[in-house]
Design brief:
This protein has 102 residues and is of the alpha+beta class. It is built from three helices and three strands. Helices cover 29% and strands 18% of the residues. It starts with a helix and ends with a helix. This is Metal-sulfur cluster biosynthetic enzyme (PaaD).
């Protein structure tokens, strides 16, 4: 995947607002890796705040909807990584300010 397409995907993901935190998944530090193969499969590796997060399904739908409008993305697959666990240190300075942590 070229840098321009990666930037386009990350921009789309930055529009996905976590309903609990009201901050996007990129600034919250949920996105670990993204990849788009030649067949149009976009793989998103994420870490959420807790295993079994009650809004996991909602976030998956929101991520898929945001990415499916990108040219070349035919399918979205989301995988989760739980090690290392998510922590506040993963958040951007913007997210910390928005949540009153900075």
């Amino acid at each position: 995947m070229d840098a321009g397409k990666k930037e386009e995907i990350m921009l789309a993901l930055s529009q996905v607002i976590d309903p609990d935190f009201r901050v996007d998944v990129v600034n919250l530090g949920f996105i670990n890796e993204i990849d788009l193969n030649d067949q149009g499969l976009c793989l998103v590796n994420m870490t959420l705040t807790v295993i079994g997060c009650p809004i996991m399904g909602t976030l998956e739908e929101m991520v898929a909807d945001a990415l499916k409008i990108i040219d070349g993305v035919e399918e979205v697959k989301i995988e989760y990584r739980w090690e290392p666990a998510w922590s506040v240190e993963r958040m951007s300075p913007y997210a910390k300010v928005m949540l009153g942590l900075s």
